[in-house]
Amino acid sequence: MQTRFDLTQADIPQSWYNLLADFPEPLPPPLHPATRQPVPPEALEAIFPKNLVHQEMCPDRYVEIPGPVRDIYALWRPTPLMRAVRFEKALQTPAHIYYKYEGVSPAGSHKVNTSVAQAFFNKEAGTKRLATETGAGQWGASLAMACKLFGLACNVYMVKVSYQQKPYRRMLMHTWGATVHPSPSDQTEYGRKLLAEDPHCPGSLGIAISEAIEDTIKTPNTKYSLGSVLNHVCLHQTVIGQETIRQMELAGEEPDTIFGCCGGGSNFAGLVFPFIQKKIKEGKKYRIIGVEPSACPSLTKGELRYDFGDTAETTPLLMMYTLGHKFIPPSIHAGGLRYHGMAPMVSHALKLGLIEAEAYHQTRVFESATLWAQTEGIVPAPESAHAIAAVAEHAVKAREAGRKTVLLFNLSGHGLLDLSSYETFMTGKLQDV
Ligand SMILES: *Cc1c(COP(=O)(O)O)cnc(C)c1O
Predict the structure, then answer these.
(1) Vertex 393: Cα angle to 336 and 320 (nearest 5)
(2) How many CA atoms lie within 13 A of 401 on its CB side?
(3) Which domains does the chain have, with CATH numbers?
(4) What strand order describes the sheet that includes 4-5?
(5) Is 369 in the pocket of ligand 1 (CB under 6 A)?
(6) Hey, whose CA ends up nearest to atom 2 of ligand 1?
(7) pLDDT tens digits, residue range 160-206?
(8) Given Cys at both, which of 40, 69, 150, 379 links 123, Cβ 3.0 to 4.6 Å?
(9) Ligand 1 in contact with 208 (CB < 6 A)?
(10) CA distances from 83 to 285, 367, 411 (A)
(11) Which of 422-425's residues contact partners 24+ apart within 8 Å by CB, and which partners?
C-alpha cells in the first residue's frame, strides 16, 4: 500500500497564497496605541523593510516566490505527505490519518519557510543585520540559518530560562553564526531596567520581543524579524498547504478534518489557509481545527480584542484572541506554544466561523506523542504533539461511531532537541496546569 506521496523540486509552489484577498469580511487593521488610528505603512518601516511591510498589507491573492528563495526551499522542499497506517492500527480506528511532515528542514521545523523569505527580502532592501527574539530557540535557529545563507548578521534575544535549560538550540544558533543574548539582557535599556528590579527574572517571549525591537530602533542598518503571528509570516507558510492539496490528490482522498497546533498560529495557517480558500471559493465543507495547550488557551479562552504584541507595549495594537499582553504562561514544556495572543488572520478566521479550536492538557499530549513515536518512528516536537493528541481524540471518536473519516494534520517539527521534556514526562514529573 502506498503511504508516502512525494512531489518533485519542480512542484515547489511558484507563489504564496494570501487569504487576505478572500476573507468574506476585511481583517481589522493594526492600530497606533496612542491615536487608535490604523498604523500607516511608513510607521512599520521603522522596524521592517518596505517590501515586507507591503506584504503585510498586501491585497493580492498570490505573491510570487523569488527564485533565490525557491532555490533554498529545494534543500528540503517539497516536504513529504505520509499516511500514518501504524498509528491508525494502534488506535484501531477506521479513520485514515495523513500528515504533512515539516521536520525534514535543516532547522527541524516549518519556521525556515519564513526565515529564508524574510532574510531574502531584508537583503534586497539593504538591511545588514536582523534582531529577533526566541523562546525555546526554534525561531532563533531558523533565522540564524537564513541570515547566514544571505550574508546578514543575526542578533537573538533568547528567553533566559530557555537559554540556561536548552543549550542545544543555542549551540545551533552559534553554529550558524548568530549572536545570542539571554533575555532580559544588559544590551537594552528595557532589559537593564528589568534586571535592576529582579536580577533573576526568568524572562518571557513578550520581554524578549521588547528587547529585540529596542535593539532594532537603536542600531543602524538593523531590522526586526518575527517568526509567527504577522500576516506576512502566515503568507510565507502557505507553501505547506499548497503542496498538501496536490499530495492529497495523489493519495486520492480529501480530508474531512484538518488540524494544526497553534502557538502564534503560523504553521496552522500555512497548512490550512489554502484549504480555507477552497471552503470559501468551492464550498468545501472541511472542519479545520486549531489545537492549543490548555495552559495557554488564547483561542479557546481568550478575548477577541485589540492588544499589544509585547510586554513593554511598543508594538502596534493587533486585533486578536488574547490572554492579555502581561500574561506569562506557566512553564509548560511546549515552549513554542507560549505566546499570549494569536495571529490576527487566524483569529479572524475563527471569528468568521471558518475554523474551530480545541485545547489539550500536557500529559494527554505526551501520551499521544509517545504512541506516535512508537508506531510511526518520528519523535514529534512537543508543539506538534498537540495536533497529534487532537487527531487521536477524533480518530477514537470515529471508531466509537463506526465512521470512516479522513484526518489530516501538520507535523510541524521533530522533537530530537526536546528530549528533556520527554524525560520529564516518562519520569512522571509532568503536571497539567
Ligand atoms: C514554533 C513552533 C510552533 C508554534 O508556532 P506557530 O507559529 O504557531 O506555528 C509549532 N511547532 C513547532 C515545531 C515550532 O517550532
Answers:
(1) 40
(2) 10
(3) 4-9+76-108+237-426 (3.40.50.1100)
(4) 4-5, 81-83, 96-101, 406-411, 257-261, 287-293, 356-360
(5) no
(6) 336
(7) 988 998 899 999 999 999 999 999 999 999 999 999 999 999 888 88
(8) 150
(9) no
(10) 21, 20, 12
(11) 422/366, 422/369, 422/370, 422/379, 424/333, 425/333, 425/362, 425/363, 425/366, 425/370
Residue minimizing CA distance to atom 5 of ligand 1: 263
pTM listed for this prediction? 0.97
| pLDDT for residue 331 | 66
Report the atom number in ligand 1 closest to the C-alpha of 413: 13
Query: Are the C-beta atoms of residues 155 and 130 closer than 8 Å to each other?
Result: yes
Torsion of the alpha carbons at 305, 279, 412 and 350, rounded to the nearest 10: 20
Q: Is 160 in the pocket of ligand 1 (CB under 6 A)?
A: no
pLDDT digits (tens, 9 = 90+) for 25-54: 999 999 998 899 999 999 999 999 999 999
Q: Is the CB of 107 under 6 A from ligand 1?
A: no
SS3 (DSSP) at 71? helix
- In degrees and rounded to multiples of 5, residue 328 shows phi and psi of -110, 110
Would you list the DSSP string of 252-263?
A: T---SEEEEE-S
**What is the C-alpha separation between 90 and 392, in angstroms, rounded?**
10
C-alpha cell at 348: 479572524
| Count helices and strands in the chain by DSSP H and E runs | 18, 15
- Mutual angle of helices 167-175 and 138-150, in 10-degree steps: 10
Distance CA 373, CA 232 (A): 33
Going from the Cα of 137 to the center of ligand 1, the distance in angstroms, rounded, reads 11
Taking residues 368-385, what's their average pLDDT?
97
Contact 131, 216 (CB under 8 A): yes
Question: Is any atom of ligand 1 closer than 6 Å to the C-beta of 79?
Answer: no
Q: Is the peptide bond before 316 cis (omega within 30 degrees of 0)?
A: no
Nearest to 270 by CA among 309, 308, 323, 229: 229
- Radius of gyration in angstroms for the set of CA atoms belonging to the chain, rounded to a whole number: 20
* φ/ψ (deg, to 5) at 104: -80, 0
Which of 168, 229, 266, 320 for a ligand 1 pocket mutation test, highest count of atoms within 8 Å of Cβ? 266
